[in-house]
């Protein structure tokens, strides 16, 4: 009886403490959001003061424009990335790879492709996790095409790419990238599924069998989800900030020194070969969204066509050579070639459509 009373007292104590704990997080969250807003709004005047007053560079000069571009865009992107990664981190705390696998198990290919592409946006993913995710999906009975829809969407349509595009180029281009990226992932996965290529998976993978319905329950409290999101900020921003700085530095050089006519002649709408050339150049490049989006912004600012630039960006992120080499552990060469070819054709189609329509 005494133990029961103690247990009830402890439960009541926890109930009293939880609201206080939540209030603590909400209070400081709103304070930090206010500080974030003030910093964000002060970036443009600060960059202009830094470049043209403190350094006394001439407005409109090559060096002056390059420096102002770099000083403005670098903290802007890092601030946006920090906020969005935190918010997406809270969403991701509900979607472990195992739970994603359970959601996709048993789904028909058409529905499964769409669902897999959408889940790819919110499920934690990196190139090093491609092999265990692929094995987990295939051995749980998830169709090959559905698995590929996820593997295409997860690296390409992620929060880093979307927040950088939104911050540097606006919500319209970010939305276009989101929908076209999902389109490529869904269609490419569906086509791969229709080709019945399961026999090109390495034999040792097919011998593994797992139960997709076995998912370890991981019920997180409000505080644990906040901690998870904060850790996501630390991990992701901590890893990609150097790519952001390098990418913006390259973009600043293009912005300040490359003539508009030069980029328009190479990557403009009139050059029919610009889209396939952009894909060919993009595939062997080792970069991520953090490094490539600032370059995309600078290319568009110098007259490059939107379709060509989007094709370049998609090929860098979705068809990266390191990921192909990693997937070689579980896929035979022919399936990798088919996968890369179908995705490349989808990217080419997106590039040409945008160049014709916009």
What is the gist of this entry?
The chain is mostly helical.
**CA-based shape:** flat
Strand content: under 5%
Number of strands: 0
Number of helices: 16
Rg, Cα atoms, Å: 23 Å
Biggest sheet features: none
What's the helical proportion of residues?
over 70%
- Domains (count): 1
How many angstroms separate the termini? Answer: 75 Å
In terms of quaternary structure, the protein is: single chain
| Secondary-structure element pattern, one letter each | HHHHHHHHHHHHHHHH
Return the structural class. Answer: mainly alpha
Unreliable stretches covering 5 or more consecutive residues: 1-19
The average pLDDT is 79
Keywords:
flat
Helices and strands in order:
Blueprint: H1 2-54, H2 62-92, H3 97-104, H4 109-122, H5 130-139, H6 144-156, H7 159-169, H8 171-194, H9 203-206, H10 222-257, H11 260-267, H12 274-282, H13 289-301, H14 306-318, H15 321-327, H16 333-357
What do you see in this structure?
By secondary structure, the chain is an all-alpha fold. It has one domain. Helix 2 packs antiparallel against helix 10 and helix 5 packs antiparallel against helix 6. The longest helix is centred in the first third of the chain and has 53 residues.
């Amino acid at each position: 009886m005494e133990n029961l009373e103690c247990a009830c007292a402890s439960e009541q104590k926890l109930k009293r403490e939880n609201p206080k704990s939540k209030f603590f997080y909400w209070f400081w969250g709103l304070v930090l959001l206010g500080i974030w807003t003030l910093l964000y709004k002060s970036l443009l005047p600060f960059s202009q003061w830094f470049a043209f007053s403190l350094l006394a560079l001439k407005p409109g000069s090559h060096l002056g424009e390059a420096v102002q571009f770099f000083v403005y865009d670098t903290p802007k992107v890092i601030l946006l990335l920090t906020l969005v990664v935190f918010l997406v981190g809270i969403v991701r705390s509900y979607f472990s790879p195992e739970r994603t696998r359970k959601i996709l198990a048993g789904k028909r290919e058409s529905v499964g492709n769409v669902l897999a592409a959408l889940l790819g946006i919110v499920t934690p993913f990196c190139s090093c996790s491609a092999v265990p995710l692929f094995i987990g999906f295939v051995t749980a009975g998830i169709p090959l095409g559905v698995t590929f829809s996820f593997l295409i969407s997860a690296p390409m349509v992620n929060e880093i790419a979307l927040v950088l595009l939104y911050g540097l180029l606006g919500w319209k281009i970010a939305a276009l990238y989101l929908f076209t990226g999902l389109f490529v992932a869904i269609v490419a996965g569906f086509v791969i599924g229709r080709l019945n290529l399961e026999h090109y998976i390495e034999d040792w993978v097919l011998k593994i069998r797992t139960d997709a319905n076995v998912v370890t329950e991981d019920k997180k409290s409000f505080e644990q989800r906040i901690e998870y999101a904060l850790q996501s900020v630390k991990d992701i921003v901590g890893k990609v900030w150097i790519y952001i700085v390098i990418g913006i530095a390259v973009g600043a050089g293009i912005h300040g020194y490359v003539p508009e006519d030069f980029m328009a002649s190479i990557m403009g709408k009139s050059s029919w070969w610009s889209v396939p050339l952009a894909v060919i150049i993009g595939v062997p490049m080792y970069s991520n969204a953090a490094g490539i989006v600032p370059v995309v912004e600078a290319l568009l600012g110098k007259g490059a066509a939107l379709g060509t630039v989007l094709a370049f960006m998609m090929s860098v992120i979705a068809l990266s050579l390191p990921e192909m080499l990693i997937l070689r552990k579980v896929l035979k060469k022919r399936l990798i070639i088919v996968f890369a070819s179908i995705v490349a054709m989808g990217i080419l189609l997106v590039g040409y459509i945008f160049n014709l329509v916009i």
